[in-house]
Write a structure and sequence with these properties.
The structure is a homodimer of 209-residue chains.
Chain A lengths: L10 H16 L6 H8 L13 H26 L4 H18 L1 H7 L11 H23 L10 H20 L5 H6 L2 H13 L10
The structure holds a DNA duplex (30 and 30 nucleotides).
Chain lengths: 209, 209
DNA sequence: CTCCAAATCTAGACAATGTAAAGATTGTAG
DNA sequence: CTACAATCTTTACATTGTCTAGATTTGGAG
């Protein structure tokens, strides 16, 4: 069905949503500017009024991924305001869960399309805020004495935990973990165990929710 | 310069090497079947005698990545035959270093192109052997008492360490770690710290080599 | 050695894609 | 109301993945 108005009205956002939908239905390989334009009901060159090139659409989709992760973090922080350890546990699981629920959206979010520090300001912004949230949670855990400092710089601790979660998420998404393990051990248990090994914290499965 | 013989002689391998070279020079986005064919000095359809489609060339390149990582592991194992802890430390760093030296080769190796378990037998083979090596090193560390078992299933321990290294490698490759940290802390220190946090092992920087 | 089938390579074609250019339509600031 | 800027369409072109038909070469059966 063709549009009534010549102008779409909200094309930029429609293209981002179309892109996310394509990722969900057809995966990374199915994403194209023209297909997104078709879904939004505009001509194949219309996107160029809003995105300089395909990379910029991808950057916008990646920003949206970071934003969604950030929202989940914020939700958890207000849910357990005075329990930083639970924030850490639940936040970690929420992060991984986003990856499992929207695998290709997650992958594109961390696909490393953004090299230039100056372009894609929104992406940089959200990405840094996510890192900042993790830093804060870890700082609070340390202050509360529920997370070992152990002479480890807290920045290095944050980066290590993030790296761990990121790596496991990708390996799970891409089915690269030993099939033996996958059959006997649900993702949640893998994350729980990994977190305990890394941070030596006393958490249980319930605290991931 | 055109070939002398009608038949290339070793086209399959030449295409793989061409692909790896393209990855090094132009990155993931620059890789195309036709470009690889051009480099090998054959027509654009010649690759189809050796690879059913582009995915199969990618799978072959990914297999090569796994093979190179495996070779590094083996080298380290014969270098420190009776020091499993050092095998773990040096192996971990060798893994990350491969990612830093050949970022896009590393990325394509773990890009998750292989979904079907039955196709791409070579990839599955190498991938499993890499996992097996890590398992063995960890088992030896445990037996030698230089790595805490701590009630953690050894498969989960292996997967966690792998996830950690994989995640950190990607974040470093894609420059997604806080720029503040990058400026003050070389990759080697990041890996060393992460390993110590995860496995609570007593290793120093020298042992990574 | 001969000859044929299989393996390998070329040439040509097609659809999909990213993207540039030129022009049409619409919203809006003055 | 009008001129300008933003938005959108149409047309066009190069690149790419992949298919088909045919040419060349190789290896092995007889």
């Amino acid at each position: 069905m063709p549009r009534k108005t010549y102008h779409h009205g909200n094309l930029k956002n429609a293209l981002i949503q179309a892109g996310i939908a394509i990722l969900a239905e057809e995966g990374l390989g199915g994403l194209s500017l023209r297909k997104a334009a078709r879904r939004a009901g505009v001509s194949h060159a219309a996107p160029y009024a809003h995105f300089a090139d395909k990379q910029n659409l991808i950057a916008a989709i990646a920003s949206d991924g970071h934003k969604k992760i950030l929202e989940r973090f914020e939700t958890i922080r207000v849910k357990y305001p005075d329990n930083p350890l639970r924030q850490l546990a639940a936040g970690a699981w929420a992060y991984v869960k986003f990856g499992l629920q929207a695998p290709d959206h997650y992958r594109i979010t961390f696909s490393g399309v953004i090299q230039d520090e100056h372009s894609h300001a929104e992406f940089i912004e959200y990405s840094q805020r996510n890192m900042q949230v993790l830093r804060e949670i870890i700082a609070q855990c340390r202050s509360a004495g529920v997370l070992d400092a152990d002479g480890v710089d807290s920045e290095l601790q944050a980066v290590s935990i993030w790296g761990l979660l990121h790596g496991l998420t990708l390996l799970m998404i891409q089915k690269q973990l030993p099939s033996q393990l996958i059959k006997t051990c649900p993702p949640k248990d893998i994350v729980l165990s990994a977190l305990q090994q890394m941070a030596r914290i006393s958490i249980n499965k319930r605290m991931l929710d």
